[in-house]
Design goal:
three-stranded mixed β-sheet
């Protein structure tokens, strides 16, 4: 979906789309994280992670995986630690 205000555009760049795909792929390739629902949004190289995990260690693992990808400038980790993932 493309939204615009004036001359600005909110459409993700190709680089952001590629980062989003790579972060999602790495999260789902990790055995401890593969079955957990995550949302990955990338804007100007800043990755925002949302979702639910059972432990703080899993939350940190997801952030570390995303941060280790070339091109990621920063990770905003909004993953919630809860007893049962949603």
């Amino acid at each position: 979906m493309r939204e615009s205000l004036g001359s600005g555009s909110f459409e993700p760049s190709k680089a952001d789309e590629q980062l989003q795909e790579e972060v999602s792929r790495r999260l789902h390739a990790d055995r401890s994280l593969e079955m957990l629902p995550f949302e990955v949004i990338v804007k100007d190289g800043v990755v925002t992670l949302t979702g639910r995990v059972r432990t703080a260690e899993l939350r940190q693992r997801a952030e570390a995986l995303a941060a280790g990808i070339s091109g990621v400038r920063r990770v905003e980790n909004r993953i919630v630690v809860a007893e049962q993932p949603a």
